[in-house]
Design goal:
This protein is of the alpha+beta class. The chain contains 2 helices and 9 strands, in the order E-E-E-E-E-E-E-H-E-E-H. InterPro entries: Ribosomal_eS6, Ribosomal_eS6-like, Ribosomal_eS6_CS.
Length: about 220
C-alpha cells in the first residue's frame, strides 16, 4: 500500500510505500476522518498521529465520505458532490466509488499529520517546541549524529513579536505621512483655486474697463 502523507502546516506531502501487510492492519476497518497512531509502521513513525482523508483502490476508484461500506458501489451523482465533475448544467451520472471504510483493496491512502497544539491539547501560551517529535539521523563519515524535526509554523518568539511591532510602527508612520501629505495637498489646491479665482476676476475687471474706455472714446 502507498501512504500519501501530507503536512498542511507547511503545505508539503510525501509518498511512502509500505509492503508489510501486518503493519498496515492499523488502518483496516477505519473510516475517513479517523485518527490512527502510526507507531506500528516502524521506529521512524514513532509519535506521529495520522488522519485518514481519502484513498483509491487497486483500480483507481476513489473513496467517498458518507458511504458506510468497504466495498465498491454505484451512485447517481450530480454537480457539487465529491468524486464527480459535471460537464453540463444539471447533468447527473452514475459513477462507481469506494466506501469510506479502509480495507485490503485500498492501494493509495491519503493521510494528514495532525497539528501539534490540537494533538497535545495546548493553549496559545504554551511552548510547542518541546513537543515536536524529532527524528534521529545516524552519524555519517566525519560527522556527528543529528536529529531532524518538521518546521513549526506560527510560532510566537521574541523575534516575531519584534517584527510585528516594527510592522505596526511602519504602518502608523505611513498613515501619518499620508495624512500630512493630504493636508499639504489640500492647502496647495486651495491656494491654486484662490489664485485662479483672483486671476479670473482681474481679467474680468480689465475687460470691463477696456469696454468702458472704448465706449467713452466713441
Amino acid at each position: 500500500m502507498k501512504l500519501n502523507v501530507s503536512y498542511p502546516v507547511r503545505g508539503t506531502q510525501k509518498l511512502f510505500v509500505v509492503n508489510d501487510e501486518h503493519s498496515l492492519r492499523i488502518f483496516y476497518d477505519k473510516r475517513m476522518g479517523a485518527l490512527v497512531h502510526a507507531d506500528p509502521l516502524g521506529p521512524e513513525w514513532k509519535g506521529y498521529v495520522l488522519r485518514i482523508t481519502g484513498g483509491n483502490d487497486n483500480q483507481g476508484f476513489p473513496m467517498m465520505q458518507g458511504i458506510l461500506t468497504s466495498e465498491r458501489v454505484r451512485l447517481l451523482l450530480k454537480d457539487g458532490q465529491p468524486c464527480y465533475r459535471a460537464r453540463r448544467d444539471g447533468e447527473r451520472r452514475r459513477k462507481s466509488v469506494r466506501g469510506c471504510i479502509v480495507n485490503s483493496n485500498i492501494s493509495v491512502l491519503a493521510l494528514r499529520a495532525s497539528k501539534i497544539r490540537k494533538l497535545f491539547n495546548l493553549s496559545k501560551d504554551d511552548d510547542v517546541r518541546r513537543y515536536v517529535v524529532r527524528r534521529q539521523l545516524p552519524a555519517k563519515e566525519n560527522k556527528k549524529a543529528t536529529s531532524k524535526a518538521p518546521k513549526i509554523q506560527r510560532l510566537i518568539t521574541p523575534a516575531k513579536l519584534q517584527r510585528r511591532r516594527h510592522f505596526i510602527a511602519e504602518r502608523k508612520a505611513r498613515k501619518t505621512k499620508e495624512k500630512a501629505m493630504a493636508v499639504e495637498y489640500a492647502k496647495l489646491l486651495a491656494l491654486r483655486k484662490k489664485q485662479s479665482k483672483a486671476r479670473r476676476q482681474s481679467e474680468k475687471r480689465r475687460r470691463s474697463l477696456s469696454v468702458r474706455r472704448s465706449s467713452a472714446s466713441a
